[in-house]
Amino acid sequence: MTVRIGAGTGWARDRFSPALDLVQRGRLDYLFFEAMSEVTMSAAQVARESDPTLPRYDPDLLDRIGPVLADARRNETKIISNQGWLDPVGAAQAVAGEARRQGFPGLRIAAIAGSDISDQVSALQTLSWETGEPICTYRDDMVSAEAYLGSTAIAAALREGADIVITSRITDSALVLGPLTAEFGWAEDDWDALAFGVVVGHLIECGAQVTGGYFADPGYKDVPDLANIGYPIAEVDPHSAIITKLPGTGGIVSKATCAEQLLYEVNDPSRYLSPDVVCDLTAVRFDDLGDNRVRVSGGRGEPAPDTLKALVGVREGWASEGMMLFAGPGAMNRAELARAVLEERLEQAGFRPREIRFDFLGLNAVHREATPEPDHDVHEVILRVAAASETKEQAGLLTRELEPMAVSGPSGTGKFATMGSRIRPIIGLHSTLIPRSLTTPSTSVITS
Amino acid sequence: MPEIALRDIAHARSGEKGENVNLAVIAYDDSDYEFLRENLTAAVVAEIYGPLLSGTVERYEAPNISGLNFVLTGALRGGRSRTLAVDESSKALSSLVLAHTFPPPDTTAGTEH
After folding, report:
1. Considering only alpha carbons, which residue of chain A is nearest residue B60?
2. Which residue of B13, B49, B87 is in closest CB contact with A260?
3. pLDDT at residue B1 is higher than 90
4. What tens digit of pLDDT does each residue of A222-273 get?
5. pLDDT in tens, A117-146
6. Residue B16 pLDDT > 80
7. Does the beta-carbon distance from A266 to B22 stay under 8 Å?
8. Could you give the ipTM of this predicted complex?
9. CB neighbours of residue A219 within 10 Å
10. Residue A388 to residue B69, Cβ atoms within 8 A
11. How far apart are CA A440 and CA A438, in angstroms?
């Protein structure tokens, strides 16, 4: 029995329309929304400081789930989403309210909590990968702390009859491994099966990145109708799956797109860690069946690690940034003059950033110090300055000296890009490994 | 014999995890994998990305997809949450390796006698 799973979104700021197309035409058993990146939780906490009325779940929750509800019910498609963020129960209640409003009483919505470990940080001795210090060092400035949970609670909730599952922070592939485990009855120590499930999840967890997104390189890797790219569907059997997309959509599914996604954000491919299993991605095999259908097979797994990865967000000051535009003859000379003037004035103003960078957009900002020397003069260049400071007041000194440059700096300076300078708080993330025992996944069921 | 442009024989994708950037380089044609494996070494990649690295380049082989995975340790100092780099996600870094050219095989022959 083939299980059909569609990827509605690959991250928090993904498109809205592909999920609707998938649920309408995809004949899906499951549709998932992956709506969380590393910085999402800490950014949400900071946003709530400015606006305490913001929910602690994804503000886009109902804008994504609302439009697909009717077709999901009609096609018997279950929905799994990690938009619960820091309040999966609240999110489930909001979804229940929306379901009732649309005329769907009796839907079972499971809320899976247990990733939030912020109340444990003050005692946490495990070390930060970024600094080598114990995590408890950062207790006073901590903004958020969550562990990446696996798929076990999702599978259990689905077996118990959930129509919709809302989670907090989980590893992305759990959105797929959860339903597959529920459908195929894989045991928690069936490592090869679990590894195969994680591979399928990893391939489609970033949405369009496997169907021709983050891929096109005109003339080298051409993608038809990229504007209307179809998001991926996995048609999964216990030992192999087809990665594909809806007919009539743009994009491409090929061994090349699958290979790029297979290694995406991977360290040692022979040991790809997830909370449920350690996978050997070098055992995976792709066969191109044509017509945007690629078969994936070959799971090889080792026992899951004893620890879970966790992210702790810590206040680390303020970032400020601004830009100045130059074009035409002497553009680069004027940009360099601007830099020299700015540096001197910032020094005089008492600006003492922790870090400051000057980049020349159009010349060497993207590949930074590794950019090859240009063999020609640029017509236009944008001087960009960015700094990290301890205080908001310090960060503001950059803006204070940058903006007057329009009247007291070099000639021919255009209006600043991005409508002036930006100042934002820096929430530094610390990665650490914690014992599983520190998390207590709990599932509540809300009925609409 | 002309130089071999990496971009002609392989495609690439980069991503980040913590302070590390991973760079996957995959041969378009399985028959080019051996050439890649022999010539696109960790040292070559370290040379290309040198000024961005604060650690080593580790290379892993994925022959099942005719690909090599390079981990550029410390290339995103502080990680995405702290970096002041314009390319905070490091997704634009893969295009740098694609500018690389390999010297034509003939020029390496007969230099050791």
Report:
1. A268
2. B13
3. no
4. 999 999 999 999 999 999 999 999 999 999 999 999 999 999 999 999 999 9
5. 999 999 999 999 999 999 999 999 999 999
6. yes
7. yes
8. 0.94
9. 7
10. no
11. 7
Look up residue B77 and give its two tokens: 């100092």
**The pLDDT of residue A50:** 82
On chain B, the residues whose CB falls within 8 A of the CB of A42 are 81
**Cβ partners under 8 Å of residue A119, min gap 6:** none
Rounding to the nearest 10 degrees, give the CA dihedral for residues A336, A342, A348, A352.
Answer: -100
Write the single-letter amino acid at A427: I
Chain B CA closest to residue A219: B8
B30 touches chain A (CB under 8 A): no
pLDDT at A419 over 80: no
HSE-up (13 A, CA, CB side) for residue A144: 28
Q: In the numeric block, which tokens belong to residue A21?
A: 């197309």
**Count of pairs with CB atoms under 8 A, one residue in A, one in B:** 134
DSSP code of A253?
-
> Cβ of B86 and A130 within 8 Å?
no
Q: Which of residues 144-203 of A touch B (CB under 8 A)?
A: none
CA distance A437 to chain B (A): 24
Is the CB of B62 inside 8 Å of chain A's CB atoms?
A: yes
Q: Could you identify the residue written with the tokens 């314009």?
A: B86
| pLDDT (average), residues A61-76 | 98
Q: What is the pLDDT of residue A185?
A: 97
Q: Is A448 exposed, middle or buried (0-12, 13-18, 19+ CB in 10 A)?
A: buried
Q: Which two tokens stand for residue B53?
A: 């690295």
Determine the distance in angstroms separating the CA of B64 from the nearest CA of chain A, rounded to an integer.
6
Give the closest of A259, A316, A388 to B84, CB-based. Answer: A388
Q: How many helices (H) and strands (E) does chain A have?
A: 11, 18
In 10 A of CB A248, how many CB atoms?
A: 10
Sort out which chain A residues have CB atoms less than 8 A from B11's CB and list them: 217, 220-221, 256, 260
Contacting A residues, span 114-143, partner chain B, CB-CB under 8 Å:
129-130
Look at residues B94, B8, B84 and name the one whose alpha carbon lies nearest to residue B48.
B94
Structure token digits, residue A143: 């903004």
Which of A251, A278, A252, A254 has the alpha carbon at shortest distance from A266? A278
Sign of CA dihedral A85, A87, A92, A93: negative
